[in-house]
Write a structure and sequence with these properties.
Helix content is 30%, strand content 25%. It is an alpha/beta fold. A hairpin with a 3-residue loop joins strand 24 (464-474) and strand 25. The termini are far apart.
Length: 541
């Protein structure tokens, strides 16, 4: 006990409120109700209208029995209703489970069952998928059909439509803060490349922290115009539903990103910010002339997933689109590491700057710490840019844990850190650089080969639009690099050409021994499915 522990200094409703994204919409409605909030095709709504729709949604779900701790599942692309679910469902203390629309029915059925979903909201384009998933889950769900006027349509399979549900709700529904900021807010499932996907649980505190951190990290102004090329179902859109709402910005929706749609949004709506995987960058830089539109405003893009090739970063910035490279995982609310630019970099050549910007960087301002640790000693590896270890996180931007998986959670949280499974080095300037997923390291003749290093070498060829490198079994060396390549439209090069190009970039043992030209399998978030490519390699043997 000390003088600062007396009852006169305790928590009260006057001096303490739980950190939660729920507060974000409450303020924006009060202060900026007349400002634009949603643009979707012909739809235009201001923040007053969006807030009313969210309160109606929360009220209607409450009337239908949804309460604290209930899971509300969503299968929908980037549409206004998906944003409204992100804002409304936390008001009830319920948990939003936004699902990847490209998952198969078996996996979705597992998720609905494992997460004990009580309600499912589904865009009619995905009605058949949802119907089979619900059957596989074995759960009796209240199904709500979302009929997007910008979508292709589809069968209604639910008890009522989204608009009918809103009509049941009270537009004066009170904003409800959570009892505890540690309460669950969202449930997101990992990709499940090995076994069943794991349910990652987010808290109100963590989501609020990362939403605010996006503002700090990106130095975002009030009233940005944000283009939804990043899926809203991917780590809750990296928490940008709440970031953009906090700043009373404008959400511009694309059901599915295309070069034409992105350029049109730049030109017609004055987009200032967007996020996405490097595939979105390639989509922009490789656009055909007919797809391009002029735009005069500066545009900022945050990219994650695979490390972006320096050549792609340079091409984007030559177009007037500045790139911020971030890194993270589902378990850390999306990105939690940023390649923070330093003023001293401006004196370097554009090529040197692009190489520095391709690194993952340093911990987010509101993340306690990120380190590269030796998996055996649990100590930091040297800051030499050479010695590899595993990336580990700690702080408020780390998940609560894996749903119903005590042992897996305990293993992930070993010795006070969350262990990512990603291999990296620490540079002398404090920046980390991913070298590979632990499962993506190629061990050839006892030598470790970074698939990312090989990919970057191939990306340096002007004809390469997209590349992924995986291990290919080899009788002599055990395994060797095999490259899968998509070419820039109109380019025609041979396997021998690329292998010869690699000669000037890589040591002999690191060069790909096989190059296969074909479309790369990707997730809806733009990540290349290396699991599928490994299976493809096996089929070639």
């Amino acid at each position: 006990m000390n003088i600062y522990t007396g009852p006169e200094l305790g928590k009260t409703n006057a001096n303490f409120a739980p950190l939660t994204p729920v507060s974000v919409l409450k303020r924006t409605e009060r202060v900026y109700s007349d400002l634009p909030a949603q643009i979707h095709g012909r739809i235009r709504r201001n923040w007053g209208e969006v807030a009313e729709r969210c309160k109606r949604l929360a009220s209607a779900l409450s009337q239908r029995g949804v309460s604290k701790g209930d899971t509300v599942a969503l299968i929908a692309p980037n549409i206004p209703e998906a944003l409204e679910c992100s804002l409304a469902i936390p008001m009830l203390g319920a948990v939003l489970n936004a699902n990847n629309v490209r998952l198969d029915a078996k996996t979705l059925g597992y998720i609905l069952d494992h997460g004990e979903a009580k309600v499912l909201l589904v865009d009619t384009e995905y009605a058949e998928l949802a119907k089979e998933a619900v059957e596989r889950s074995g759960r009796a769900l209240l199904i709500i059909d979302i009929e997007d006027p910008e979508g292709p349509g589809g069968e209604c399979i639910g008890a009522l439509t989204y608009d009918a549900l809103l009509a049941e709700g009270d537009p004066e529904f009170d904003y409800r803060l959570p009892d505890d900021e540690w309460d669950a807010l969202a449930l997101n499932y990992t990709s499940g490349t090995t076994g069943q996907p794991k349910g990652v649980v987010y808290s109100h505190r963590g989501a609020w922290t990362n939403a605010v951190n996006n503002v700090v990290t990106w130095e975002m102004p009030h009233h940005p115009v944000y283009l939804w090329t990043l899926p809203l179902f991917h780590c809750n859109g990296w928490c940008f539903p709440w970031t953009i709402t906090l700043l009373a910005g404008t959400h511009v929706f694309l059901r599915s990103p295309t070069a034409e749609g992105i350029y049109a949004a730049f030109s017609d709506h004055g987009v200032t910010h967007l996020c996405g995987a490097p595939i979105i960058m390639s989509m922009i830089t490789s656009a055909a002339g007919a797809e391009e539109r002029s735009f005069s405003q500066p545009v900022r893009m945050m990219t994650a997933a695979a490390p972006p090739p320096p050549q792609t970063i340079l091409a984007m910035e030559n177009m007037g689109i500045s790139i911020t490279h971030v890194y993270g995982l589902t378990e850390v609310y999306g990105p939690a590491v940023v390649c923070a630019e330093r003023a001293t970099w401006s004196s370097l050549s554009a090529e040197e700057q692009a190489k520095l910007k391709a690194r993952q960087g340093v911990a987010y301002e509101l993340q306690e710490d990120v380190m590269v640790l030796d998996p055996d000693t649990r100590r930091p590896v040297p800051w030499d840019g050479v010695t590899q270890g595993e990336v580990a996180f700690r702080g408020n931007i780390v998940m609560k844990g894996y749903l119903k998986q005590l042992d897996t959670t305990a293993k992930a949280f070993n010795e006070g850190w969350f262990w990512s499974g990603d291999l990296a080095v620490q540079h002398a300037d404090g920046y980390i650089e991913i070298r590979d997923r632990s499962k993506d390291i190629i061990i050839s003749g006892g030598e470790n080969i970074s698939s990312i290093e090989v990919e970057n070498a191939l990306y340096s060829h002007s004809a390469v639009a997209c590349v992924a490198v995986v291990a290919m079994p080899d009788e002599k060396w055990g395994e060797v690099p095999c490259a899968f390549v998509e070419l820039v439209a109109g380019c025609d090069i041979t396997e021998a050409d690329l292998i010869e190009h690699a000669r000037g970039e890589l040591a002999g043992y690191k060069r790909p021994k096989r190059v296969i030209f074909e479309a790369l399998p990707k997730t809806s978030t733009g990540k290349i499915l290396k699991t599928a490519l490994r299976e493809r390699v096996e089929s070639l043997q």
